Automatic annotation (TrEMBL):
Binding site for Mo-molybdopterin: 86, 89-90, 144, 179, 227, 232, 243-245
Oxidoreductase molybdopterin-binding domain location: 106-261
Name assigned to this protein: Protein-methionine-sulfoxide reductase catalytic subunit MsrP
Species for this entry: Massilia eurypsychrophila
Annotated function: Part of the MsrPQ system that repairs oxidized periplasmic proteins containing methionine sulfoxide residues (Met-O), using respiratory chain electrons. Thus protects these proteins from oxidative-stress damage caused by reactive species of oxygen and chlorine generated by the host defense mechanisms. MsrPQ is essential for the maintenance of envelope integrity under bleach stress, rescuing a wide series of structurally unrelated periplasmic proteins from methionine oxidation.
Catalytic reaction list: L-methionyl-[protein] + a quinone + H2O = L-methionyl-(S)-S-oxide-[protein] + a quinol; L-methionyl-[protein] + a quinone + H2O = L-methionyl-(R)-S-oxide-[protein] + a quinol
EC annotation from Swiss-Prot or TrEMBL: 1.8.5.-
InterPro entries xref list: MsrP, OxRdtase_Mopterin-bd_dom, OxRdtase_Mopterin-bd_sf, TAT_signal
Alphabetized UniProt keyword annotations: Metal-binding, Molybdenum, Oxidoreductase, Signal
Length: 326
């Protein structure tokens, strides 16, 4: 197959050109042909039909125009790695568990309640959310506090688009994100590793920053459940845990929200959690990171960049001691 050299200068197609959907469709066609050629009732025929049947829940496409101004040129992490190496404690604390367990998450119907210090409180379903602003593709680096990172093409739009619609009043100083906590769907809630529901938050200017992405898809398809379907945020200059998954409530508040990781270990996870190679985690260095799916075992780790390589956010923190406000 001919792969066009993409305009971002990488020998990689944009995910909007070749999506997991395309891969899935060609595979399905192949399986159909295989089934047609096989003797009815034979082992091959049975296998082919079972395969074809199992694939009926095809990933749904979600494409958007690439926004090059906000996109990293780094080599993208393979979809397979980004969708099987996850942190989503509601589905287990092992990296491989969310991909195995998150099929029980029911992502439709789904509503997000937007409330608090705003003039226009509202409840939106996913279709309402998707219609709020044009979907863009943003290729972001995401670095976990544990010392690994990925480069993922996301589909969504700036959270600021939603914030403008609900008209915050003068008391709105922070935004609090509450995520789903349903023990019937989420086996991980049985274990008290965190206080449920998982809550995260941003200061108002951080929430309004155009890089803060309200995210409904990745790699040209709707979010896999393990990546936070049907809607999450992605805040690329902060450690990954700020990017809350499967959001059900967005509340505008006066006081700094009590966030899940900060409550569980305040000396390790501050509210700001900006990626900062100069402020070590109490138990390990934050100076370097491993790029998932790219670096081999003996590969040198790469240096972690201030604000994860997003210097355009620095002005929001001028005058703040980032060692104290970690
Ligand atoms: N609801 C919820 N959101 C969450 C988490 C979680 O456990 N629960 N883990 C966070 C952490 S620690 C990281 S690194 C990112 C991982 O996102 P990814 O699996 O899509 O790469 O999700 C964040 N959002
Ligand atoms: Mo993380």
């Amino acid at each position: 197959m001919l792969i066009k050299r993409s305009p971002n200068g990488l020998d990689l197609p944009f995910s909007s050109e070749i999506t997991p959907q395309d891969v899935y469709e060609s595979r399905r066609k192949f399986i159909k042909q295989m089934a047609a050629g096989a003797v009815a009732g034979s082992a091959l025929w049975e296998m082919a039909n079972r395969e074809a049947f199992a694939q009926t829940t095809a990933p749904q496409k979600l494409v958007g125009k690439l926004n090059p101004a906000y996109s990293a040129l780094d080599k993208q992490t393979p979809f397979k790695d980004a969708s099987t190496y996850n942190n989503y404690y509601e589905f287990g604390t092992d990296k491989s568990e969310p991909a195995v367990n998150a099929h029980t998450l029911k992502t439709r119907p789904w509503t997000v309640s937007i409330e608090g210090e705003i003039k226009k409180p509202m409840t939106l379903d996913i279709d309402g959310l998707l219609k709020l602003a044009p979907i863009e593709e943003r290729v972001y680096r995401l670095r976990c506090v544990e010392g690994w990172s990925m480069v993922i093409p996301w589909q969504g739009f700036s959270l600021s688009e939603l914030i403008k619609k609900v008209e915050p009043n003068g008391n709105a100083k922070f935004v609090e994100f509450t995520t789903l906590a349903d023990p019937k769907q989420m086996p991980g809630l049985r274990s008290p590793v965190l206080q449920w529901p998982y809550v995260e938050g941003l200061r108002m200017d951080e929430a309004m920053h155009p890089l803060t992405l309200l995210t409904m898809g990745m790699y040209g398809q709707v979010l896999p459940n393990q990546n936070g379907a049907p809607v999450r945020i992605v805040v690329p200059w902060k450690y990954g845990f700020k990017s809350a998954k499967s959001i059900v409530k967005i509340r505008f508040v006066k006081e700094m929200p009590r966030t899940a990781w900060n409550v569980s270990a305040p000396s390790e996870y501050g509210f700001y959690s900006n990626v900062n190679p100069e402020v070590d985690h109490p138990r390990w260095s934050q100076g370097s990171e491993r790029r998932i799916g790219e670096d081999g075992f003996f590969q040198k780790k790469r240096k972690t960049l201030m604000f994860n390589g997003y210097p355009q956010v620095a002005s929001m923190y001028t005058g703040m001691d980032l060692k104290k406000n970690f």
